[in-house]
Amino acid sequence: MLTKIIYKNFRSNFKNYVAFFIGNMMGVTEFFVFWGLYSIVKNMSANSVMLEDTLEEIIISVSVITIFSTALMVYSMLNYIKKRIADYSLFYILGMKKQKLYVFVFSEYLAGWMVSLLIGLGIGREISFFIMLAVVFVLLIWADNSGISRMIAGNEIKEKRPKSIYWSICIVIGGGLLIFGYWSYPSNTFTGYVLSHVEWIMGGFLILIFGGGILLEIIHSHLKFYLKNLLKLNQLYSKYQTNVLVLLMFFSLHFIALSYCTANVCELLPINGHEKYYPYQAIWMNRGEKGDISFSETLSHSYNGKYENIQMIRVSSYGNELIGISENTYKKLTGKSADLKNEEIIYIVNEYKNHSGANVTRGGFEYGRNGFTWLAMGSYINELKKYVDPSSNHPLPNHDTDHLYKIRETVTGNLFGYYKMNDQAENVVVFSNKYFSRQYKILSKKEYEPNTLTLFAFPNESKEKATAKIKKYAKIHGPNDFELTDTPQSTLYITDEFLKTVKKGDIFKITNKIFIIIALLISSIFVSAIKAASDLQYYRKEKEFLQCMGIHEKIWKKIFDVEIQILSWISLITATILSAAYMIMNIHIESERGVIYGYKIWIYWLVILCLYWFMHYILQRIVTRYARKNVERQEKRK
User: Fold this and answer.
1) How far is CA 351 from CA 9, 62, 130, 487, 595, in A?
2) Is the dihedral of CA 98, 103, 106, 112 positive or negative?
3) How far apart are CA 591 and CA 422, in angstroms?
4) Do the bridges between strand 344-350 and strand 404-413 make them parallel or antiparallel, or are there none, so unpaired?
5) pLDDT tens, 258-317?
6) Residue 455 · residue 287 · CB < 8 Å
7) pTM of this prediction?
């Protein structure tokens, strides 16, 4: 009998619980969507190195969506319980025991989660299961603190907020997390990079929550201003704890959209015009034999071009191949003397977004003991790949003295062009003349090792035909590419082809980031809509009360609009401030790596920020208008 009553009651009031199901399904489904995107990019990146960093960066979005999904599901469930509290009271009166009531509440939640899981259609369902367990855990703690019992008893729960200045310690902790995030951000491990964003989110959230509570108390002490804005700020004062989850969702979504995603887009802009930074139409690493020299001379003469041969050796680091030159060659190319001794080196980071010779103080080139880097002479062949494998018995880099080279200085440079897919590939290493000559003789005896770097320059009208000839000749007579490096590297780079590959990758990355920004913005709007739908009964009662107090319709509309939008705008403003700090941090760290973006990156950031704010304003107005019409419609029905 009790089961039938429960079923009929739920079916007759189903429309009142739609917000719960939408919130629950949206939380799980959005998590699935982002994991689906991760799976797609993962499959695509297997054949394209340009997408490898995109694959890693999507994990940050997935991490934020995990926080968002969990918070949304908890918020939806708590609102659902508040909606059904009258029904729970009835079941309690009819004799349902408290323990059975708890089981019943969690069974309802489990049913809703199963529906959400079916919508997700299996993508990432194992992780979704852990999210569900996390939500149940939170609800168990809440129930154990007599949350349901107090609501059934009809007691109004007084929501506390941080008032005392002593809560400032939490603001300090939040600031500390931001500082930790700064130090974690440039970590050479991807885990540190992801962790830094989580630290920024949690640090900003602590500052927002506890700083906001103290600020409200300060406003309360200014009686005139407080009374003037009481109705607009009522939701912050009366429902502070309830809104904590909402603020967490809003802030995490806005912050990632305006910091990590926006910064990545700004760094990639513009996607055209890079040709001017490449002094040569092709660079080719060859054996420097008579046939190669004759081919270069004939080709250059036939197509009105120029060529230059430079002695070089292949140098390997962990998973990358570099270009080694002598200090004489370095002086010829740059006009600077090196005066290197023994195994001292100058490490040149290929970079055209800075003037050549700028000091680099941060990066992944120091691998091994501090002030040294691990290098091996020659191409990255299979024997070397096995040597650096963690499962081998060879010494760790900081103890492998046979392969450690002292770094005299690390500077930026653009000697041949920016032909690299990661931080280290095709960077230039300068050796002393004596050491270079010894290694050059040893490596020249190996037929697979290139020892000459030929630089080709052709006029625009003939470069396409000329580079096609180079490509054909190099395929037959040039050294083989071993294709064992972490990112694709070659002995031949055709500038136009390389730039097309880079451009395609940049377009995909920008499109991907814009998709994530839009998805996060729409998610925040969904949160606003779900919150508005959950609070419609509260807004109807509030309107009735204000009408009885003689408040005009026009004033009520202004108050209503502020109440609907205030949490999202507070989070957006906070996220924008932290986004500016994030950009400053990112620009500073990149400058230490030798990358200087200039003032244009701030213009790109400002444009994206304005577009984001504008879209947020329009979509919030739509949600507000819909919620207000719903309240007015319900009022007319009465």
Assistant:
1) 68, 31, 44, 18, 7
2) negative
3) 16
4) parallel
5) 998 999 899 988 888 888 889 999 999 999 999 999 999 999 999 999 999 999 999 998
6) no
7) 0.79
